Automatic annotation (TrEMBL):
Belongs to the purine/pyrimidine phosphoribosyltransferase family. One of its GO terms (cellular component) is cytoplasm. The gene is apt. This is Adenine phosphoribosyltransferase. It comes from Cylindrospermopsis curvispora GIHE-G1. PANTHER family: ADENINE PHOSPHORIBOSYLTRANSFERASE (PTHR32315:SF3). Catalyzes a salvage reaction resulting in the formation of AMP, that is energically less costly than de novo synthesis. One of its GO terms (biological process) is AMP salvage.
Amino acid sequence: MNLKSLIRDIPDFPKPGILFRDITTLLCDPQGLRYTIDILAEKCGNLEMQVDCVVGMESRGFIFGAPLAYRLGSGFVPVRKKGKLPAAVHRIDYQLEYGTDSLEVHQDALTPGSRVLIVDDLIATGGTASATAKLLEKIGCELVGFGFIVELKDLQGRKHLPDVPIISLVEY
C-alpha cells in the first residue's frame, strides 16, 4: 500500500510557505489505518528488545501509540502538555523555535528500567521527540526506539535523537 498517497498536502498552513502533511486523510481510510498500524507493529516488533510500554506524545502520538501498544502486547503511556494530567507528574521543559514548552508524564506510569518505544505521527525538527526521550531518561527508562509515520528528512530531526533505532514509514 502507498501510504504517501493517503497523506494530503496543505500549502501555506499554519503560515505562508509551510507545506503541511495532513494525516487525517490517512486516518479516515480503514485499510490505510489498519496497514499503518500493522506495518509499524511489524517494524517495531523487530527491535532487539521487548517493549514494556509505548509512549505517545500529545496528541497524534495517542492515535498511533495505543493501537500499536495493543499489537505489541505492551502498555501505553501518554505524554501530555503541561497541566493536562491529574496526578503527580515528572516534567521537562524544552526549547521551541519561538519559546519554551513543557511535557509531563504521570509519576506512577513508568518505573526505572522500563523498556519504552516513543511513537508520534511525525518527526520534523525532533524537538518534542528529543524532549520526551530526555524525560524518560530522567525517570530511568530504557529507550528501545522511536516510531514515526512521517519523517520530514530536510529538517534533520534524527540528529537530535539518541542513538537508538528510528523507524519512519513515509519520508518527505
